[in-house]
Amino acid sequence: MKKYSIILFLFLSILGLQCFAQTSQPTITDDFKPSTLNQPGKEYPQVNSQGYARFKIEAPQAQSVVVSLGLGGAKGGTPLTKGDDGFWTGTTAGPMDEGFHYYHVTIDGGVFNDPGACNYYGSVRWESGIEIPAHDQDFYALKDVPHGNVQQILFPSPSTKTSRRAFVYTPPGYGADKSKRYPVLYLQHGWGEDETAWSNQGHANLIMDNLIAEGKIKPFIIVMTYGMTNEIKWGGIRSFDITPFQTVLCDELIPYVDAHFNTIADQPHRAMAGLSMGGMETHTITLNKPEVFSHYALLSGGIYKPEEIKDKSKVKLIFTSCGSRENPDGVKKSIEDMKAAGFNAVSYVSENTAHEFLTWRRSLKELAPLLFKD
Fold it and tell me: pTM for the whole thing?
């Protein structure tokens, strides 16, 4: 009898664990809507209120379709299931982080973009993009406020024997008063991206428009150019030579911008910032060229040490930031050290984000009001 009691106990225990496992599975709310980054008229991909993403790809002859880059926390991506109509569908294993994400589709081993989504340059290729609405997205939303202008410029680059491209944000009202001049922020993208990133993925122009409309910042110009970072392979940062880009930026682009835009063309009114590898570029160039920039900002891009800066009088601001899932303790400690050394230094940590654009959007929002305060 004792033997059967033990067996019954084990059976009920296993049954209880199974019931617990079944009841503990999250319920996915069926309120999916097309992503805001979809191609016109395309229904998929879709996002629900919990942050799950759902995909639907037409590939009737395919044997395997996976939405790659580990969406939803699933290593290896989200596998899709084929239907009788030749469409493959699937939902991420879990909710995704808020904000913007790159992704692509792997079909029978080949890498493709999702035909339903708009494309964004990242990972050294044009990738599909999806946006998970953030609870604080209002600061980069398109609002009925005066808007600035983002224009493409082509500037001569003797050092690279070609013309190079940059994008320039000018604030609302720029040019109305011909005598009015503006400070300038040189803002760099990360590895795998290009000069389109901060406008397209980062919404830098909308962040600026909204802050200006709210009276939280003094208007300034932003210049975004290609950092010449993608010639190195992922993980090869130690082999990156800053000299060619430093020449392009300091000797070619800055003089061109100062000659063609209403800038305050001096060091106190010039800032440099960058995300990730663009932060590494910012760190190196600002230390090499203290006579060019007075405001330094690293967004998930490392830290400054007091002993690195030879002339404290030339530095008006040091700003470092990261996501709470990156290295927040290191960022905070470095700023404490900079403050103790007498620098005007500020840290910012984006809650519940990692190495991603919501971290950097939030960082720009925090940085902008600190720049060019006389």
Answer: 0.90
